[in-house]
Design goal:
With 361 residues, the chain is α/β, with parallel strands linked by helices. It has 15 helices and 13 strands. It folds into 2 domains: 131 residues, Aspartate Aminotransferase, domain 1, CATH 3.90.1150.10; 209 residues, Type I PLP-dependent aspartate aminotransferase-like (Major domain) (Aspartate Aminotransferase, domain 2, 3-Layer(aba) Sandwich). The longest helix has 23 residues.
Length: 361
C-alpha cells in the first residue's frame, strides 16, 4: 500500500481499510480438507460430455433465457411449492450480499448465532448494516432465550439460521428454530434458512417453509459437487423474491455456470451417490476420531467434522507439515477454542488424515 497516495486512500472507506480480505489457504500439493468441497470429480465419460457441451456454447453472447431453464430444473429438483420462486446467485455469497443491499433501510440490522458463517457479518458490514451476533450454548445448540431477547431488542431486518451450521456441523433444535422464526415474523423481519449442507443432512426446513411467508430458504450447488461453478439459489414467496431480485446484476450467472448446473441436475443420481458415500465416510471418520485420546469430535450433519484437540495451532502446523490441509477455526470465536474443522474426504484422504493426526498428536 506504500506507493498509494494518502489522498487516494481517503477515498476508500476507513472500515474497509481496517478489514481483512477473506483468506484462501495455499493448497498446492496438499490433501485438501479445509473448504468443505466434494472430493469426487466427474467420471471421465461425463467430463467429456460436459466438455463437448460447454465447447459448443455461444460465449460471444450474453447469457440468455436458458438461465430460466436452470431455475425450472432447480424448482423440479427441490419440489418448489406453488406460489414460490427461485433466485440465482454467483454462489450463496452473492445472495447474502444482495439481501443486505435489498434490506438496507435506515436502522436495519442483521442477526445470526455465533460461531457461524463469516459472510453474514461481512456482508452486513460492507453494506453499512449493524451486525448482532448471539453466542451459541457451549454444546453449540441455539441459545433460544438470548436469540429471542436479541430479536426483541434489535428488531433485525434479517435473521440467518444455518441448518446445519458452519463450522459446528450440527442441526439445531426444531422447537427453538420455530420459536425464533415466529418471533422474527411477529416483528416484521425476514428469516433466511441457509441449507448449504443439505445434501449431507438428515432433515431439511423445506417442508416447514410454507408455514411462514417471511422465510427464505437458501441452498448452493457447491456442496452438491460444483464448488468451482459458483451457483447459489434462494427460494421464497414469489412477491418477496421479486423484490430482492431487483438488486441482482442482470447477467450474474454466466452461460458456463448455468450450463454446468443444468448438466449436473440431469445427472443428479451421480451426485446423490457421491453425497451418500461422503455421509458414510463421515460416520467412519467420526468413530476413528472419537477413538483418539485427547480428541473430541462433535456430531455432524454436514460434510465436515469439528474437533477439539489439546493444541489447535500445533496440530494444524503438524498436519500441514505432513501434507494435510485443514482449517484452524480456534481463533474465530471463544467457543471454538482449540478446534479444527476437517472436511470429509475420500476413503484414502481420510486414512491419510488419521495417520497424520495420530503422528501430530
Amino acid at each position: 500500500m506504500s506507493n498509494v497516495s494518502p489522498q487516494l486512500l481517503q477515498r476508500i472507506r476507513q472500515d474497509v481499510q481496517s478489514m481483512h480480505a477473506y483468506a484462501i489457504q495455499d493448497s498446492a500439493g496438499m490433501v485438501k480438507l479445509d473448504a468443505m468441497e466434494n472430493p469426487f470429480r466427474l467420471p471421465p465419460d461425463l467430463q467429456k460430455a460436459l466438455g463437448d457441451r460447454l465447447g459448443a456454447l455461444a460465449l460471444n453472447r450474453y447469457p440468455d433465457d436458458r438461465v430460466n431453464d436452470l431455475r425450472g430444473a432447480l424448482a423440479a429438483h427441490t419440489g418448489l411449492p406453488e406460489g414460490y420462486d427461485i433466485m440465482l446467485g454467483n454462489g450463496s455469497d452473492e445472495l447474502i450480499s444482495l439481501l443486505a443491499l435489498a434490506c438496507d433501510v435506515p436502522g436495519a440490522s442483521v442477526l445470526a448465532p455465533l460461531p457461524g458463517f463469516v459472510m453474514y457479518a461481512m456482508s452486513a458490514q460492507l453494506q453499512g448494516l449493524a451486525f448482532h451476533g448471539v453466542p451459541l450454548r457451549a454444546d453449540f445448540e441455539l441459545d433460544e432465550p438470548a436469540m429471542l431477547a436479541a430479536i426483541a431488542e434489535h428488531r433485525p431486518a434479517i435473521v440467518y439460521l444455518a441448518y446445519p451450521n458452519n463450522p459446528t456441523g450440527n442441526l439445531w433444535n426444531d422447537e427453538a428454530i420455530e420459536n425464533i422464526v415466529v418471533a422474527q415474523g411477529a416483528q416484521g423481519g425476514l428469516v433466511v434458512m441457509d441449507e448449504a449442507y443439505q445434501p449431507f443432512a438428515s432433515r431439511s426446513y423445506s417442508d416447514r417453509m410454507t408455514r411462514h411467508p417471511h422465510v427464505l430458504l437458501m441452498r448452493t450447488m457447491s456442496k452438491f459437487g460444483l464448488a468451482g461453478v459458483r451457483l447459489g439459489y434462494m427460494m421464497g414467496p414469489k412477491a418477496l423474491i421479486a423484490e430482492i431480485d431487483k438488486v441482482r446484476p442482470p447477467y450474474n450467472i454466466s452461460v458456463l455456470n448455468y450450463e454446468c448446473g443444468l448438466f449436473a441436475l440431469s445427472h443428479a443420481k451421480v451426485f446423490a451417490e457421491q453425497a451418500q458415500e461422503i455421509r458414510h465416510q463421515r460416520d467412519l471418520l467420526q468413530l476413528a476420531l472419537a477413538a483418539l485420546p485427547g480428541v473430541q469430535p462433535f456430531p455432524s450433519q454436514a460434510n465436515m467434522i469439528l474437533v477439539r484437540v489439546p493444541d489447535a495451532a500445533r496440530t494444524f502446523d503438524a498436519l500441514k507439515a505432513r501434507g494435510i490441509l485443514v482449517k484452524n477455526v480456534s481463533k474465530l470465536h471463544p467457543l471454538l477454542a482449540n478446534c479444527l474443522r476437517l472436511t470429509v474426504g475420500t476413503d484414502s484422504e481420510n486414512n491419510q488424515l488419521m495417520l497424520a493426526l495420530k503422528d501430530a498428536l
